[in-house]
Amino acid sequence: MEKIVIIGNGPAGCTAAIYAARAGLSPLVLAGNTPGGLLTQTTEVENFPGFPDGITGFDLVMNMQTQAEKFGARIEYDTVTSAVLNDNGIHRLTLSDDRVIETAALVIATGASPRYLGVPGEERLRGNGVSACATCDGAFYKNVPVVVAGGGDSAMEEAIFLTRFASEVHLIHRREQLRASQIMADRARSNPKIIFHLNCKITEILGADQVSGVKIADTVTGETGELECKAVFAALGHIPCNEVFKNAGVAVDAQGYFIARNNTSLTDIPGVFVAGDCTDPHYRQAITAAGTGARAAIDAEKYLSEH
Ligand code: NDP
Predict the structure, then answer these.
(1) Is position 136 annotated as part of the catalytic site?
(2) What pLDDT was estimated at residue 168?
(3) What is the average pLDDT score of the chain?
């Protein structure tokens, strides 16, 4: 039986692994299908303390993983498909290859996955012009117009990144006010290749085999129109990855985020702890995820020493 299993190897999972490994617990980290988590899909990270010149999301998270492994963490790239929690103090996880892992403590740091628009054409054209990752797919769209949907920091970042390739970037946001921070909004606004469409929503994504445009509507006047583009990048925030553990009885809030007790990582299930974006509807920063990862490992260590 394992002492501690950590699910997810984004900043929260890796930090939990560093702390647990340094405490001599030899954690097993299940890295799932998106090794490194969403941070690996961002470009430059400029606000993680300790890197005055910035660092790529990929390098940052790989450094964290190397640091955890140095102290004895073991990383496996497998996905948990079901879980039975707290069966007489033992948590049983079934993996996609049908293996069953038993553990005394469990840290859930499963992160969040991108939200999509949910409009006609989107699902059908996903991978053929519809994407949620400009870093992954932006280079395919050289010298053609593209659309970014959303008004948060991710939308600004994606739009700015896409100006390296696209002829023009149409940023479509459903309200007048941007949700993005001032610095990111200013950067996007000062980029001549970015065209803002505020109070505007996408009602359909057009194209037979590839995206050819979007249908849009003014959210104030109701006026409709079409915009030609070759790609639509959804930058609409994220949905917590909770399915397996919600079904296993870990409480979630109305938006699906795992509920931790005040200022801890404790759930209502003894020996089960939560960390990172899957339990954070507010901050969702690499540094805050890392902080809650540390907290979860400390809480788990205390639990293990008491049981
Ligand atoms: P946010 O939740 O901040 O923004 C999501 C955006 O998508 C909002 O503008 C929202 O509109 C819009 N939206 C959501 N659902 C829909 C929908 N169905 N149809 C149309 N529009 C929709 O997510 P982000 O990913 O941008 O940011 C998450 C966190 O990560 C934030 O804390 C952000 O600061 C941080 N971040 C920081 C970066 C940086 O500093 N470099 C880079 C990227 C992220 P509305 O505003 O109307 O709700």
Answers:
(1) yes
(2) 98
(3) 95
